[in-house]
Amino acid sequence: MTPRAFYRIAVIAVGALALAGCAQNPVSGDRDFVLMSEQQEIQMGAQANQAVLKEYAALDNPALQAYVNDVGQRLAKQSQRPDLTWHFTVVDSPDVNAFALPGGYVYITRGLLAYLNSEAELAGVVGHEIGHVAARHGVRQQSASTVAGLGAVLGSVLVPGMNNQASAPLLQTLAHAWTAGYGRDHELEADRLGAAYLAKAGYDPQAMVEVIGVLKNQELFSAAQAARDGQPARTTYHGIFDTHPGNDARLKQVVAEADKYRVADPREGRNDYLQKLVGLYFGDSPDQGVIRNNALLHEKLGLMVQFPPGWRVQNRPDRVVATSPQGDALVELEQGPKNDNPLETLKKGVKLDAGARYDSGQLAGFPAAFAAGAQQGKPVVVAAVVFNGTQYLIAGMTRDMAAYERERSALRAAINSFRAITPAEKLAARPHVLQLLAARPGLTMAALARQSPLGDEAEDQLRLLNDLYPDGEPRSGQRLKIVQ
Known about the structure:
Elements: H1 3-9, E1 22-24, E2 31-33, H2 38-55, H3 62-76, E3 87-91, E4 98-101, E5 105-109, H4 110-113, H5 119-134, H6 137-148, H7 169-180, H8 184-200, H9 207-229, H10 240-243, H11 249-256, H12 270-276, E6 281-282, E7 290-292, E8 295-298, E9 303-306, E10 312-315, E11 320-323, E12 329-335, H13 342-349, E13 357-363, E14 366-375, E15 378-387, E16 390-398, H14 401-416, E17 419-420, H15 423-428, E18 432-438, H16 445-450, H17 458-465, E19 479-483
Helix pairs in contact: 1-7, 3-5, 5-8, 5-9, 6-7, 8-11
């Protein structure tokens, strides 16, 4: 889950912050310097939860939601804060992530669920996040950042002025922590706490080590993807390689501390867990549209946009953003207002520097308006098109004029590609879903990949899904996750 969306959420937390001085840490019993009382923490978490669920909808799968909540509640009862009202939610995002809000709100993406292989591994992720909340890591880090003076963040082309929202430091800090982690000491503390919760709830605490291995493999794969595509490597869940280096002796040590709580026959729950994943979307969901060959195919909205080849495309719940390999140009698509005055939308809604040019016309036969200029000195081209009763805004921006001259054609081609989806594209827009398969004798991952719709990355992806990365092969009879 990327920080950008959470920076937009951050403004909702402003009213919840007040100087509360020192408070006792629920885990250590020591006095912490924090800027928030527990009641304020709970209040802020409730408010921010509403904002999170506007950005990332809860997954529409009641059975899976109930299953994850049941696991979470059993673990939370073993924590140092059992009296909090805990909430566990699967969010409908393909990102590989889990995160927590202060006050007892824990989220896990369906993208991460796809790569886990047992209930014990699920418990490892959820227990780790409970540990962050129990030890008040988010609140403590926010307090330190506020004292140090956290800087403002850049906003979106199409949401002008958001880069001035520096007054909500808590969720800005958390947005960084959700990808980069809380720092090695806090991450290890969350591992130690989570391992104890697992053991007390009847799981093998070593599941914590196993799930770190799953996440490290995911980060290795992402790094290989980025290198192949000439893109900078992305930090994945909690900065696993920074916070948990290879052959992590300290991780093994803190997890081993939970052995004193270990039960004789710990629960793994592999088959139960895998069965819950059948039919789960893998990758983009129909509600967000799907990306195929850098094109957004959105059957529900009835539209198609082709983003530049070789650019990294991120399909977010509220927008789609494509970034150039050099990282100095982007194209962004989002929904605009439900009216038929696109020129007014551009003039009032997209704040461009003085001297910008505006014009009306058509795009793919639909009423449209166009603007060209700059936003805080950065070159911008943007269109608003009226399609099926709703405006859609497509913007291109570059870091400077040199990048604009290099990418001018790509930006304009992306904008001009907007059109209605074709029947053939509707077929291509069908989402990928997870299914289960029992491995027959002699089945190889290469053979399985040849039957997969995942293309060139199918073998690596299937290995990751089944904890066989980078070169493992299935055992006869093993239940495997496949993508159809």
